[in-house]
Task: structure prediction
Amino acid sequence: MLQRLFKAFEYPDFRIMWLGACTSTIGTWMQILAQSWLVYSLSKSAVYLGLDAFFGQIPIFLFSLFGGVFADRRSRQALLLMSQVIQMTCAFILTALVITGWVRVWQIWCLSFTVGVAQSFGGPAYSALIPSLVEKKDLQNAIALNSIQFNLARVLGPALGGLALAKLGAAWCFSLNGISYIAVIISLLMIKPRFVPQSSSEPLLRSMAEGINFLRTREGMSALVVLAFLMTLLSYPLITFLPVMAKTVFHGGPDTFTLFLCLSGLGSIIGALVIAGMQAHAGQAKRSLFVMMLLGLLMAGFGVSNVLSVSSVLLFGAGACLMIVFALNSSLVQLYVDDKMRGRVMSVYNVAFRGGMPLGSLISGFLIKGISAPAIMAANGVLVVLLGVYFLLLQRDVAKL
Result:
């Protein structure tokens, strides 16, 4: 059982990349925690907090299609190195702004946007690189283990970030994040992928259109892309507005926010372990839709609960369900595409998947200002349940995969 659970670790390059990415992602989550709390502390506004998430994610929606084309005609390692260096530089700039006392919310928004641009090129390259480190039969396991590193970092990052924020200040969180990028840069210089894209003189837009047409012509894939967008549109605000829930509902500080992030991350690790132990076969899309409906119920419960222990359990369960849905849907796309098209196809999927995040954060932020955070959390949960029912019973293309 354990051998199957950690099968992808048998590949040395995957292990190296996993360790480097995990170290870097821990630093990223330290910054996410400190940056969210800093923005909310400076502005006292859920709208400003939503705008920070919007500026960080909208470049991925705007530029990932271009990033996908480059990932299929340039070295994916080189693209990732460029992305990591830019993000590292932004982390150190924010550190300097906080230390000097010159930091303003608009500066944080600008840096978030710059990081988002870097991720719009690095994200498709990373999605395309991971499958080239393992054999196809172990691809779903590799995707699940990659999700584990991300969510392990979601636990360790906020825990370390919360401690650093409370004891040392936000600048330490940002500087440690900058240092953490060194680990993934070293990993990228060490690995040797099984597939390296060849340069192409094909026009950029034509290459981009090939990736879009691939998804359009495969049964169920277009619907899966739509589902990815709507799913993140409704579910991502659960993470974005945890500082608001911690402060307004439970009257807590950074410690309560850290607790929530860690519980969500722990739940996601459990969800990823479930996926890692599964064999890829027909019917996993239908299972994903059932888990999505359970996620909606847990989100709605988190919205209406005002008991910390109950909310903690609900958030843990929601984190597990989120990861199961995201990993199953992502592996479905990866299994149907070959290496030459992987960057473009995954960029289209990621535009939908990541595009829902900034729009969901922005819309929910304005709604929270006029109504309340608990009510919007509960409403989003109900809509996630209805979304699952719709794709399971009415729009059945996804359920057939």
Remarks:
- DSSP finds 16 helices and no strands in the chain.
- Residues 8-191+203-394 form a domain with the Growth Hormone; Chain: A; fold (CATH 1.20.1250.20).
- The CA atoms of residues 263 and 313 lie 8 Å apart.
- The chain has one domain: 8-191+203-394.
